[in-house]
Amino acid sequence: MRFSMLISLLRPIGPVIIGISLGFTLSLLSVSWVEESCDINAVGDEGIILSQDGSLKGARRPNSISPGNDDGEEEEEEEEDFQPRIIPYKPVKQTQPKKLFRAKYISTELGIRERLFVGILTSKNTINTLGVAVNRTISHHLDNVVFFTGTRSHKIPHGMMVVTHGDERLIWNMFQTIKYILEHYIAEYDWFYLAQDDTYTQADRIKALVEHLSMNRVLYMGSPEEFIGGEMQGRYCYGGFGYLLSRSLLLRLQPFLENCRNDILSARHDEWLGRCIIDYADTNCVEEFEGQNYYYYEMGKNSDPSKEDNVQFNNALTVHPVSDPEQMYRLHKHFTEIELQKTYEEIEKLQAEIKNVSVVAFEGNRSALWPLGINPPFEPKTRFEVLRWDYFTEDQVYSCIDGSPKCELRGIDKLDVADVIETAMGELNKKYKPVLHLKKQQLINGYRRFDPTRGMEYTLDLQLEVVNQKGHSRSITKRVHLVRPLSCIEIIPMPYVTEATRVHIILPVTLQDREHVQQFLEVYATNAFETSENAILTFLFIYDPIEAQQVNQNDIFASVKLQINAYEHRYPSVKIPWISVKSESPSQIKFMDIISKKHPVDTLFFIATVKTSINSEFLNRCRMNSINNWQVFFPIHFQYYNPDIAYHNQPLPNTLDLVKEAGHFDRSSFTEACFYNSDYMATRTRMSSDVQENEEILENLDIYDMFVKYSGLHVFRAVEPALHQKYSYEPCNPRLSEDVYQRCVQSTLDSLGSRSQLAMLMFEQEQGNST
Fold first, then answer.
1. Helix pair angle (677-693, 588-597), 10° resolution
2. Given this model, what pLDDT does residue 69 score?
3. Do the strands 455-468 and 296-298 form a parallel or antiparallel pair, or are they unpaired?
4. Quick check: helix, strand or coil at residue 418?
5. Do 463 and 409 meet the contact criterion of CB atoms below 8 Å apart?
6. What angle do helix axes 170-184 and 269-281 make, rounded to 10 degrees?
């Protein structure tokens, strides 16, 4: 009875008791107990404060100190006796930061490889014939073509990269070729194509083939052949039709290449390579992989490509054997025509699709602009952006470069007009044949304009003679519209250059130039001396024979030399050398002959004038645009007009801006030039035979004409906004050639002022005379 009453009393508070018990249990379990005792107020390693008898008085809490006793007085004593521990600060030793290496090209840093490497196996006897023919037919389609030969002839063809192994043995050459590829190109390419120089390769098809193959496959692809004798199992790729080797295959073969050279005996280099790949890479030659086929065609002796009309020939990637260069070029012509026809068919197909889609467009067929597939015409936003139409006939053009209202149609413009008329007649006859036949009588009106979004547009009014099938004819006028679209932009690979090259500035100074030297030095000192520009200024003092005889008594350049000494004292780290020459008739080429001998072959020259304002921005472009053994740079400076004409009856501005009212880019001036000494010396050597026949050529030509006529370099000519030249009248040397003299006269006249400024000046003079 009592027990049941006790249970009834505890039942309501039972859950509370159980909850409190569990809470205490869990809290005790969560506390880290420390059993070992320590001195009073001692602080353990983990910051737990213990009483004298070792009992725990508090658990460790971060950044806090628990009291060690319940008594307040004892607590204060403990706090007074507490000694904090000071941890001394030990500064971290500053190590030299490791210099971060950055690759020259982003593709190297990201590990991006090129797709296809092409190697051509040639010989000393055929490199100048078949080797040159192969290079001319595939090099402009592929990124890298290397020719491998045993020994080379004395004359190496221009524009070909040739690797010589030093031995004519076929097996040795193949071994050295694979070894050379592994050492120099294995990290840069995914696929490697090898062929002989008597094999025609359709480069675009080889590129298309590797684009559809996985780069990580172990693949040996070509024309499979059985080994001679049949004892060796497997198949090798016949070298006459070329073969593809994957990067993964060559990497697998690399450790065993020496074993192949020592252990495998064969009479044929392609068979030797096949046995090596089969033995050590366990890979056979295949002509089909992942749905892609390696098509090839064996050509008969003295066969004519134009008469070969079968599917296997037209689909071939390679053709073998090719007997002579002429046959190689005929093959290239044939396959190029096939690819061109395929391109035209694809264009027509795309145009038909555009027409079909435009029917269901919002504006219907009006949404399909003519011609199909070409960008729409440029739409000007303001009247200043309206494109100008130029009027022309078959003989005259009414928009001239020099601003004349009419001039003769000649040169490339005449060829352009003739080509457009011929194209128009061909398209008209294609449209109306066989019902009508059209003959051109004359061009009545012609209009053309350049649209930067689509190309050159033409509108022609043609007077035609129309002849029907019955022979009746009549004269009609027909208007046609044509567009010469902009072709695909091609990125031309250029050699790597930097802005770290030192520029040697050559400044010719004559008697008439003395008054401009002070202004030149002030500007140059600000832009070069004070900024420590990597450039050396060299003065070239030009004396005539009479002045040269009196140089000890009366040096005409004494004041200039004093100015040079003053700047050398002002800037102790600067040295300004000078060279003195004597000449009756100043000639750029004669002066450069002297200067060239005094400098190393890798020197970068900039020929300046005393009126030129030089700054770092231009010098950097001089370095970037001048490429050794590749390109010379002739900048077009901004020539300021005569201030008396440009600012007639106006105050002169403090600073001259690059605006059309202040000056113009002088396209008739070729005085400034950037080029390397080695390029000058090579061009001068080619010129020597003509100089022996006519020495006056050194005085008649300038450096620009010399590079254009005698060098195979790119002559780069471009406007240079950072290169300015003050106005100063300078008479032209009549001993120059007719072209050079006329350029000088034209430059002098153009520098007077703009046509509108000259017209206003003449108008004011006429008004003054009339009154």
1. 130
2. 45
3. unpaired
4. helix
5. no
6. 50
